[in-house]
Amino acid sequence: MTEIIGVRFKSGGKQYYFDPKGTQVQAGQGVIIETSRGVEYGECVQANTMVEDSAVVQPLRPLVRIATPKDLETVRRNHEKEERAFRICQEKIADHGLDMKLVDVEYNFDGNKILFFFTSECRVDFRALVKDLASVFHTRIELRQIGVRDEAKMLGGLGICGRPFCCCGFLDDFQPVSIKMAKTQSLSLNPTKISGTCGRLMCCLKYEQDAYEDAVKRMPKNESFVETPDGVGTVSQVNLLRETVKVRLDDEPENPRCYHNCEICVVRNGKGKRPEGYVAPPPEELAKLRKVTAPPESEEDRLSAALANLTLAEEPKPAAPAPEEGSEGEKRSRRRRSRSKKPAQAAKPQGEEAPAKESRGDKPRTERPARPPKPKSERPAPAKEAKEHTESAPAQEGGEGQESTKKPRRRYRRPRGNRPKGEGGAPKAE
């Protein structure tokens, strides 16, 4: 394992790794670093970190020291000198009539070297310019030609998206971008729309290229012969982002239809002849390719559903839950018990009240509303008094006493399954 720190010399510049030599450095602190160009001032962007030996290139340049207030004052004076050197260099370029554009000037930390960065569309003979600059500054002069992308990175600015340049913000290295990426992403090939401020293809074309390449492998090509839920046809347009295709059906070539990638079956990928001897499947088989999707829920449906849930939550709960229904056998036994209970209550005298006993599975009784009185012509004959029934019952049993002139009440017989063992057919009166 190797201990390293990350240092950046310019805002938005590349990050370099150095050996801290056991010094604890915090992110944001200024440091003095020994580089190939001499002693330089930089800003620490990554504190002390342990990494694998294979992750860095040996040998690492050492850290000289953490920047002191005196070092910061030296950096400030160098920035003032850079502004003066920039003006002087522009005047010298105009005097010599050179076809070059000065971009930036950078002073070394020690002040013994000055770098001039410029751009040009052709080679420039600047030997005379170097002599004039050396006579003015009395130090070592170096002119370096850079590309338009490096120029945009140094100057900065806003892109067509409204954000700062990617190269000036977070990109350490420039990735190669080609016109093939714009074709794969189905973008307009107009240079003004796919080019950045620097005049080259936008770096952001590289960001989504892997996703588009993966979608191209799964989607059919144009002019492919496919099977759809509505029939067979030829692909006329492919949308890689939505993964949909437009198909010209053989039955309706003038009205292309849009299908999802999962709703089609590719018979021939790309342009070519239709397979020999191909027979289209029946409509029932093609209908199975259709993707079943739930209709989108409207805002009114969502509001009504939320209101119904709120109403159900506010309703009071019942005091006792109703008993659950049992099997068919339990229902029949409940009906039998309810039928056997009614005649037993009618046979008892009027003055005597029967104890209220409910079976285990009986439901609680509810009071019914009183019916209006019927006219006399429709009223039934008055029922027999309970006393007569009680007097006639012993005479019928033992054969003694005077027989009642009225018709005896029909005897009730319990079902065989519910008849108690050793009990007669008719209940005895008390």
Automatic annotation (TrEMBL):
**Transmembrane stretches, by residue range?**
none
Q: Which PROSITE patterns match?
A: PSP1_C
Q: Which residues form the PSP1 C-terminal domain?
A: 61-146
Pfam families from the UniProt entry = PSP1
Q: Where is the signal peptide?
A: none
UniProt biased composition (Basic residues): 332-342, 407-419
Q: Where is the composition biased (Basic and acidic residues)?
A: 350-391
- Annotated stretches, region: Disordered: 313-430
- The molecule here is called PSP1 C-terminal domain-containing protein
- What organism does this protein naturally occur in? Pseudoflavonifractor gallinarum
